[in-house]
Amino acid sequence: MNKLITSLMLVFTLILTMLATAVPALAAPPASSCTYSIEADKTSANPGDTINFTIYMQQTGKQNTMEGTLVIPSGLTFVDGSGVLETGIKETLGWDSVDWTPVPNMILNGYGAESFTGTGKIALMKFQGTVDSTAAANDYDVTMIDLVADDETYNPKTFSCVPATITVIKPAESISLNMSELTLYTGEEETGLIANVAPADCTETVVWSVDKPEVATVDPATGKITAIAPGEATVTAKAGTKTATCKVKVNCTHSFSVVDAKDSTCTDRGWDSYIKCIICDKIFDMSDNPIAEIPYRALNDNHDFDTSEWGYKEADGHAHVCRRNAAHHDEIQPHIPDHEGGATYDYAVKCTACGYVIEPQLVEGKINVEVPFKVTVKKTGEMDPGKEVFKFVVENFGAPTEYVLVQDTVETEGEKTYEGKLIFTIDKYDAGNLSEGFVIRQVKGDAKGWTYDETKFYAIPIFVDSYTNVGGWTFCSIDENDELDHNNPLDGIGFTNSYNAEKPVTPDAPPKTGGSSKTILWIGLVTIAGAVLVGSSLYFFKKRTVNR
């Protein structure tokens, strides 16, 4: 019995499965559907702008007819004569007719004996619209209504249209500020600067900016100004292409510190006491009156000269050098030659006091050539020129000549003119080559603050009796094309070097404390010492108690 029941249940289940499987085959085919949309070549526009629109149809299934009414919202205007059907649209759809009737209702329709079976996005027509000059700032939807389409059985169906939304923008016609200038102090804020934009329904956002953020900053959205440092800045409000400006002057909220007096040395100038603002670096006298520069003291002439030796030994003489600064020396004493006459092949001429070689010993077969010139040092900046060494060179002999430099530098200190010599030796058999002359120039250095004279001169020796005895010189200038001016000989040659350096930066100083600060310091030290004493006493008292 159980086997029979089981068999009947299996057969019944099989029949139900077959019926369920057959249902999709008996279902109706999918209904025809169609979507419409209007698209524009821009999504936002200004009053007076022209916009290009296109009406699209996208279908699935079969389609025999279509009809809809174009709606242009108030604020936009249809451009007469702009409605044009797409070329070959009847052939594309396979319909008998596709028409566009702009007057009076802007109706687009079409029909055909044969159904359109395409599934792609089809452009039906194009047209133009303009934004009215009086249009308010808003979103405007261009769409189609009463859209009805028939399928192959001529069953009408209603469809909606995806509109083209145009956002009308009202540009700024003018912008003004309620203040043209204002004055702030460092750290101060200003929120009262207001931009007035016309027309009232302008949709453009006001953006704030400043040309010198190191002086003042401005919030780009709100226009709040914050004073940063002393100076002047310009704040600009911009809406579209329109701008307005406000001049902002920032004064310093001084915070003073005292720069204590400092004594001068032979090396560094000291200064009298003065006050300095730690914010703007301006300086004041001790009565809080502004001053133009640091009240420097003169250098201290109380040098500590080392008289045990001649630390300065140069061609112009010898002197004692200051132990504090080797660049300082006392009065230069002239050299004392150890014998009369010049140097010989056996002896040099030396100073009996300092040992300086006034004239080097002659070398057999060699002659000394000494070219005299002058070096002028000029001050063109705020600082006095200090000790400096300038180098010179000879080159471009008229005939190939080997030489050995003996002296090619001149040391200077201060603004004046110095006598210099460039000394070199050559083989006596090459002395005749000097008669054609050579170039003498200064080597351009790299010392900070200096401008070097790069003039070139041509030196021609005047020989006496023989080519080994130079009795004088003829000098000529050389122009920028390296041409010699033989027609205008020079009595001598000289180089001018300029020194341009700013005054040193104001030295940092501790904050102004006055008399009270020292008192507070002493009180703090006494308090700490007392605390330590009490703590120590308690510790030893407890220790003694425990031991007992």
- Beta percentage is 35-45%
- Globally, the shape reads elongated
Q: What would CATH call the class of the largest domain?
A: Mainly Beta
Helix content: 10-25%
Category by helix and strand content: mainly beta
Instruction: Note poorly predicted spans.
Output: 1-32, 512-523, 536-548
Might you state the CATH topology name of the largest domain? Immunoglobulin-like
Main β sheet profile: 7 strands, mixed
Give the averaged pLDDT, no decimals. Answer: 85
By DSSP, the count of extended strands is 39
Explain what the structure shows:
Strand 19 (216-218) and strand 20 (225-227) form a beta hairpin. With 548 residues, the protein is mostly beta strands. The protein is elongated. The chain has four domains: 33-168, Immunoglobulin-like, CATH 2.60.40.680; 174-251, Sandwich (Immunoglobulin-like); 303-362, no CATH class; 365-511, Immunoglobulin-like (Sandwich). The strands form ten sheets. Strands 2, 4, 7, 8, 10, 11 and 13 form a seven-stranded mixed β-sheet that branches. Residues 1-32, 512-523 and 536-548 have low confidence and may be disordered. The chain has three helices and 39 strands.
Structural topology:
Layout: H1 2-26, E1 33-40, E2 44-45, E3 50-60, E4 63-71, E5 76-78, E6 84-85, H2 89-93, E7 97-101, E8 107-116, E9 121-131, E10 139-150, E11 156-159, E12 161-162, E13 164-168, E14 174-177, E15 181-185, E16 189-190, E17 195-198, E18 207-210, E19 216-218, E20 225-227, E21 231-239, E22 242-251, E23 256-259, E24 274-277, E25 283-284, E26 312-314, E27 317-319, E28 349-350, E29 357-359, E30 366-379, E31 387-395, E32 403-407, E33 409-413, E34 417-427, E35 438-442, E36 450-451, E37 456-463, E38 470-477, E39 494-499, H3 514-547
Parallel strand pairs: 1-12, 2-13, 15-22, 30-39
Antiparallel strand pairs: 1-3, 3-9, 4-8, 4-10, 5-9, 6-9, 7-8, 10-11, 10-13, 14-17, 16-20, 18-21, 19-20, 21-22, 23-24, 24-25, 26-27, 28-29, 30-34, 31-33, 31-35, 32-34, 35-37, 36-39, 37-38
